[in-house]
Write a structure and sequence with these properties.
The protein is an alpha+beta fold and 346 residues long. The protein is built from nine helices and eleven strands.
Length: 346
């Protein structure tokens, strides 16, 4: 136990070092660009063009101090948000954590490169309304951002978050499948009432990351006058909310998932369920996080951890994750109770 605690503390220190190091690198680059811009301000117009419409016409200007000291740091906040979102998902998957950290660095590097392109394109320019974005700084910033993101993805190797002891899952599974246990008796009495039990399902970390990403895309679409990007951001946020938030319905007729509070998925009848067990699972083993549905498995996965695994039609699996073994045991026992009652009714 002590060794596990030390390992967990070491992993947390590793996360902090990477986050602080990446943000320090972006901040230092931001300060360097700001100093360079102020030292070169004699060759820049009084007002900088900072926004263009879809036709390439300038439709937004700012003074150099406002652009460098306020707008640039605010834009870098989105990069920090992506990194934090990645760190928050380490418990679900180290791959997602690495992708979040890499995406944050790529976004930050691209923003810094875009700022350099804006400044370089307006050197020795008297009228900022005639400004354009230089192609080579933009291409260089995209290449640098891609290389930096790839480097972070390769070098950042977080330890997998510790999972609960599998012995707890075995105990919960035994209680849920033992017809003589107090839990099974209690859930059998609940099943006889013929009521529908509703259990909230939510992949909070992934949902928040999706909403933050869509928010950043929506702001970018508004900033660069790209309505298609803003529309895609709205659609992405709506889709993310629906697929990452749901309710599990367990009633006399079967097990069903309701997505986003409004969309009902196909019900699984108890005659199709061959078995129900409590297991420890990894989210990526079942395709990721949120509502899952494919040829061999599906369900609703909020993250790696304790889950109720339903064997359906002898070769399919439907997986539903829960917070804690007790909740999973109650759900598993209730499903088994309905299966028993369904057999009696038939």
């Amino acid at each position: 136990m002590k060794w596990a605690l030390l390992m967990d503390r070491s992993a947390e220190r590793y996360q902090r070092l990477w986050l602080c190091g990446n943000m320090a690198l972006l901040v230092l680059a931001c300060v360097a660009i700001a100093l360079w811009a102020f030292l070169d301000s004699a060759r820049l117009p009084a007002e900088l063009a900072v926004h263009w419409n879809a036709r390439g016409e300038v439709n937004g200007i700012e003074s150099l101090p406002v652009f460098v000291l306020t707008t640039l740091p605010i834009r870098l906040f989105s990069a920090a948000a992506l990194m934090l979102a990645g760190l928050s998902m380490r418990g679900q998957s180290t791959l997602l954590a690495r992708c979040g950290m890499a995406a944050g660095m790529m976004l930050g590097a691209f923003i810094l490169g875009l700022v350099m392109a804006i400044i370089v394109g307006q050197r020795d320019l008297q009228d900022s309304s005639m400004a354009t974005l230089e192609g080579w700084p933009m291409a260089a910033s995209i290449l640098a951002a891609a290389l930096l993101g790839a480097g972070v993805a390769m070098l950042y190797r977080p330890e997998p978050a510790p999972v609960p002891e599998s012995s707890q899952a075995r105990v919960a599974d035994r209680m849920a499948n033992d017809l003589r246990s107090l839990l099974a008796t209690t859930q059998r009495a609940l099943a006889q009432q013929s009521t529908v039990l509703e259990i909230g399902l939510s992949a909070i970390g992934a949902r928040n990351a999706c909403l933050l990403t869509c928010l950043a895309a929506g702001v970018a679409g508004w900033w660069w006058s790209l309505p298609w990007l803003a529309i895609c951001a709205v659609l992405g946020a709506a889709g993310g909310w629906i697929l990452l938030t749901g309710t599990l319905l367990i009633g006399p007729d079967g097990v069903q998932v309701r997505l986003g509070g409004m969309i009902r998925c196909k019900r699984i009848g108890y005659d199709r369920i061959a078995s129900a067990h409590v297991r420890e699972i990894r989210a990526l083993d079942y395709g990721g996080i949120g509502y899952r549905s494919n040829i061999t498995d599906g369900g609703f996965i909020a993250g790696s951890g304790t889950a109720v695994v339903l064997k359906v039609d002898q070769y399919l699996e439907r997986v539903f994750t829960f917070q804690g073994h007790q909740c999973a045991a109650r759900v598993c026992a209730l499903v088994n109770a309905h299966r028993g009652l369904g057999a009696v009714r038939r």
